[in-house]
Specification:
Number of strands: 11
Number of helices: 10
Distance between the termini: 41 Å
Radius of gyration: 20 Å
Strand order of the largest sheet: 7-6-5-8-9
Bound molecules: N-carbamoyl-L-aspartate
Helix content: 25-40%
Shape: globular
Order of helices and strands: HEHEHEHEHEHEHEEHHEHEE
Largest sheet: 5 strands, parallel
Strand content: 5-15%
Structural class: alpha/beta
Length: 356
């Protein structure tokens, strides 16, 4: 019933989501006393990239469950700075703790960590690939505010290419139907195929747009995102993309009265400050749900106890085509294909190619 790790929501069963959601609601409403649920347990938070909400909501979640927390928010503070491999860091931290949250700028790192870990690994963002616990937060927010995952008009705006929260969200909605997604981006920042193909094949409609104005009157949800400066090859490339889509009070005049404006945060310049005072802006409430859903996740995954990592055979004569993939940086990692599509890399979903 329970997953061993949380790397990609595609691996999560509906039963697991239902348990998470009902546990998170019980905690939020004060109906579930969980103050000792993780007593004696230790959570490691390994953040190779900056974070406010994800890192501290996980830490707060563990402390509220009666557990303890250790870890780093700057990899230069530990032996990573001396060149230690991801595999060795994970083996060591999995001996010192009971659950491990990892964020890395390198795509596929969380999956790589799960191959060597004796404790549950939670993906808190792997480069521009996925961010499943943000999506759990988004799903809880949508359930609470809209009461349904079907029949919604959902605008997703900004950096759909590099925004890992967008990729996880679009993939998660493949399990629902009857929604229309308005994908608002420049052609350069359009969503990658792996996030779009399954959504297009699902019973949801996808409309690609080049402005917020063109679709805002129909929207039930507008999911704004930041242009991911740190993922661009140069400052000039970033400057060409920033500031193209800005949600302001003027645009909101033609929006529905019950529009829900979501954002994973941090926001930079894509939402004008006056929008914060509009009752339709729900992003601060959304961040709060993130703590409850992470408490539920830690409670459920901690039931797993210690795991035995199994030895995985790599494909010979193949490599991942993406230079951003962890397999091209940590060379000892076996090259593995996804189970559902043997042409794609199991770590980062880019295409596999011949290495000869
Ligand atoms: C997001 C992330 O890190 O991907 N933030 C978050 O975790 N809430 C979004 C972003 O950085 O733009």
């Amino acid at each position: 019933m329970f997953n061993s790790h949380l790397i990609d929501l595609a691996d999560m069963s509906d039963i697991f989501w239902d348990s998470l959601y009902s546990t998170a609601c019980g905690i939020k409403d004060g109906e579930l006393d969980c103050s000792q649920a993780c007593k004696g347990r230790i959570l490691s938070t390994l953040f190779y990239e900056p974070s406010t909400r994800t890192q501290f909501s996980f830490q707060s979640a563990m402390l509220r469950l009666g557990g303890n927390v250790l870890g780093f928010s700057n990899p230069n503070d530990c032996s990573v700075a001396k060149g230690e491999t991801l595999r060795d860091t994970i083996k060591i931290m999995s001996a010192y703790s009971d659950l491990l949250v990892i964020r890395s700028p390198v795509e596929g790192s969380a999956y790589a960590a799960s191959l060597y870990s004796e404790i549950p690994i939670i993906n808190a963002g792997d480069g521009g690939h996925l961010h499943p616990t943000q999506t759990l937060t988004d799903l809880m927010t949508i359930a609470k505010l809209k009461g349904s995952y079907t029949g919604l008009n959902i605008g997703v705006c900004g950096d759909l290419l590099n925004g890992r929260t967008v990729h996880s969200l679009l993939k998660a909605f493949c399990r629902y139907s009857g929604n229309t997604f308005y994908l608002i981006s420049t052609p350069t920042l359009a969503a990658p195929d792996y996030a779009l193909t399954a959504l297009k094949a699902s019973s949801n409609r996808v409309v690609e747009c080049d402005s917020i104005d063109s679709c805002i009157p129909s929207l039930d949800i507008l999911y704004m995102t930041r242009i991911q400066r740190e993922r661009f090859a140069s400052a000039e490339d970033y400057q060409k993309q920033r500031g193209v889509f800005v949600l302001d009070g003027n645009k909101l005049r033609s929006a529905k009265k019950d529009l829900c404006i979501l954002h994973p945060l941090p926001k930079v310049d894509e939402i004008s400050p006056e929008v914060d005072d509009d009752s339709r802006a729900k992003y601060f409430e959304q961040a709060r749900y993130g703590m409850y859903i992470r408490m539920a996740l830690l409670m459920l995954l901690s039931k797993n106890g210690r795991l035995t990592p199994s030895r995985v055979e790599g494909l010979s004569g193949a490599r991942c085509s993406s230079p951003r993939c962890v397999t091209n940086q940590e060379k000892y990692l076996p090259v593995i294909a996804r189970q559902d599509n043997t042409k794609l890399c199991a770590y980062c979903e880019a295409g596999l190619e011949n290495s000869d």
